[in-house]
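Hey, does this match?
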Amino acid sequence: MIGRAWERQELLRRYQRNKAEFIAVYGRRGVGKTCLVDNTLEGKITFRHTALFPAEDEKTGELSRQLSHFWVALQRYHVQTDHCPKSWMEAFYMLEVWLEAVDDGSRQVVFLDELPWLDTPRSHFLSALESFWNNWGCHRNNFMLVVCGSASSWIIDHLINNHGGLYDRLTYHMKLSPFTLRECEQFFEERQMAFSRYDIAQGVMMLGGIPSYLDAFTPELSLTENIDRLLFFRHAALKEEWDRLFASTFQHPTAMKAIVRVLSTRRGGLTRNEIALALGYSSGGTLSGCLKALVESDLVVRFVPFGRKKSEAHYLLTDPFCLFYLQWLEGPHKQDAHFWSKNVGTEKARSFQKVAFEDLCFQHMDQIKRALDIFGVETTQSAWFGDEETAGPKEVELLVDRKDHVVNMCEMNFLSGPLSVDKAYYLKLLHRQTMLAGKLSPKKVVHPTLITTEGVLYNAYSGIFSRVITLDDLFA
């Protein structure tokens, strides 16, 4: 299994303890939650059940549908029941009776996958889960309940931050993030797929480090050919992923899609009030809840731009797959099976890569800090978009504000070769450095820093950069 070393270690440590455990694993669709549990606890799971994907056209029958599916799972484990449970309270009672009957004193693991899908309207599922754990599970030292969910906001709201009967009942929770560039490289190596680091970076910039997406690659094809086959062919594997992603993650997918579409129109992100104005919403609790869910699901980030007040917090769409889908897969061109092969070298594609590379850098801050030899230095990171009323920078800048009184002003450029700094670019960087220094304490000094693919060509102007970080550094 690629990566997830400490997550595996923690799951095994919890398994080996002589104590009741209630563990939640969450993260976006396809990130590898089920794979982690299956591989780590292989041969150790006493009972497992995966909820059904929410039906689109049968909302009123969801409870009976999920209960019937759970009953099938009980019968698969030879649980003696003569009827399908009529409620979740009864369903969990059937499971309790069976677990007691087969208990030989060894560890018993119950794995409930995609748990949020079980909580259908008027099902009283949470009350039944509360009773199952509080009245039975937590009193059995050999019992371990592991739950997974793609709906991160549901896990956080109903389990991690529950204020009712499940308050403080989780014994451990872990969030799985997409693979880093290095983990993606290891993933391809393990599957004997030969891609350069330049191509791997491009793939992550389009799809994100999502293991299930990477697993769909074909080793005989180039990166460009794989993108066409996965997204633009008539029956492409990821052609319907946009709808599946939102349906599996959010209770109100249509509203979430509308917010994401609005966010995709502004590179610098939008404030909550700007989002509300664009959608015709009020900026109250409903919109706030939607934005919180998008942030918790790793599709959107909330940040305060450099030099702005906390009340001016921005929401920025950073999920690579969503950004790629909205720019390239909506509209008539999606019918062309070889669309990406025909457009990969266009100016529009290069513009997209610049934006995507900036997001990639923000997602690899640990690697950037290591490359700067400041991993032990306390830092804060922020985006700088310049001041609209001045001749400030329009591109995104990454500022790394360090406790040692240095601010790294990072330029991010995704290029096919080394960067050549000419006089005009040198003067532009010098202006930005001067403007930024004027906004900082006199104690701080600005270090222009380059993050790019293959470094910089040495010439009379290249010395403007105090440090140069390459793609290889991001793979560290």
Summary: The chain is about 40% helix and 15% strand. The chain has three domains: 5-175, 179-362, 364-474. The first strand starts at residue 21 and ends at 26. The CA atoms of residues 191 and 219 lie 8 Å apart.
